Amino acid sequence: MVEALSRNLRGPDPDWWHQRYLQQAEWTRSLRHHLYRWLEIARCRRILEVGCGTGAIAEELAERTTAEVHGLDADRSALALLRGRPRGRGVCLAAGDAEALPYPDGSFDLIATHYFWLWAGDPPQAARECRRVLRSGGVLAALAEPDYSRRKDVPNGNPPIGEFLSQDLKERGANPEIGAGLRDIFIQAGFATEAGMLDGEVGLEVQPEIFQQEWEMLARLGYPSSELDSLKASSGLKIIMPVHWAIGRRL
Ligand SMILES: C[S@@+](CC[C@H](N)C(=O)[O-])C[C@H]1O[C@@H](n2cnc3c(N)ncnc32)[C@H](O)[C@@H]1O
Predict the structure, then answer these.
(1) Which candidate, 213, 44, 189, places its Cα nearest to that of 125?
(2) Which residue from 45, 65, 70, 133 has the fewest beta carbons nearer than 10 Å?
(3) CATH number, domain containing residue 39
(4) Which residues of the chain have pLDDT under 50?
(5) Which domain holds residue 100?
């Protein structure tokens, strides 16, 4: 099951994906750090990141707390990359499926997720599993979940980039619109839940490195090269990306 999942989720180049994940984590940093303060993560003793990938967030959690930090992912190649970095050694790693977490009941104070739920095959089951392995009063945090279907690019490209990326994600088995459904999923799993959404905005003049990586990714995914060239030549380029968050407390 784990191997089957990992084949579907990512190409064969975990280093490239790690750079991509670091970039995504940069986009969502202010929202995430606000949630860390709200949740008082410094008081946690045991934290799990479900869907930790190559560790962009798990490493940060290990650095910012004295908690025992665990990371779980279905993709063994991502975990191997994380295990190989000095900072990654501060994270206890496990290959496994979010739908059947390999931890006893009540193991964690906090479960963090970041850009995870869109890839989770059965989000309600994953949320129920998170509830099971949280202690009473523990928190499940969706720190940032992008809504690609509502992404807007200026200029928007033809085909519009948000639509192109949403379609690509759907073809690879993801749900790019899951963010708006997290509140209900958490409530149905038995969490007292608060949720919301922010519009992140980046501009080429301010953060050119983000655009370089977006163009590379679009080229990899087969976005028409002539259209990409004309986008690169445009001025005033902007990306507006809605990002959902949700906090569920186990009562
Ligand atoms: C987009 S990556 C995000 C990685 C990391 N959270 C970050 O923000 O850098 C999503 C990760 O979720 C993992 N994943 C998806 N479904 C999973 C499941 N059912 N069980 C475990 N991991 C899963 C994927 O293997 C992938 O590494």
Answers:
(1) 189
(2) 45
(3) 3.40.50.150
(4) 1-9
(5) 2-149+173-203+243-250
